[in-house]
Specification:
By secondary structure, the protein is of the alpha+beta class. The chain has one helix and eight strands; from the N terminus they run αββββββββ. It starts with 8 loop residues before the first helix and ends in a 9-residue tail after the last strand.
Length: about 170
Amino acid sequence: MNAERGFTLLELIVTVVVASILLTVAVPSFTTLIRSNRAASEANALLTMLTLARSEAIKRNAAVVLCRSTSGTACASGSGDWNSGVMVYVDQDGDGAYNNSDVIVQAAIPLSAVSSITFNAGSWLNFNPNGSTNKFGSFTITPANDTNYTRKVVLSPTGRPRICDPAKDATCT
């Protein structure tokens, strides 16, 4: 018995056609999953920086500032997109501006390489020693200019941040 083993041309063609059909169905769903996860991941990264700033203010019993930064060693001036980076520092002298006497706690440069991150209350945020803030509002994270996957990180007057999905949560402002 000298039987040949392998696939026939017809079997290979049928396999390729079935695989093509499955990929045609799966790829758009996978793209949706990637965009949704990117928005959630970047919202979590921002939430982590906000929580760090708040906890440092409470721990050190001092004012802590989170600001937009492109270098990680100075705050960026003016309003704009926060995706270029953020910096958390302890405002030792209480003047609200970063200078040599202040201590940098952490910087994330860039915060996002593909999403737009905006804050509706300016380019910096101050946490008081009790963890509260005088500026409250929301950060909006929009991955690759696709508003279907927008997430918000909402900051309450008590300084507590939370993540919400504006498409699913009417209180997400």
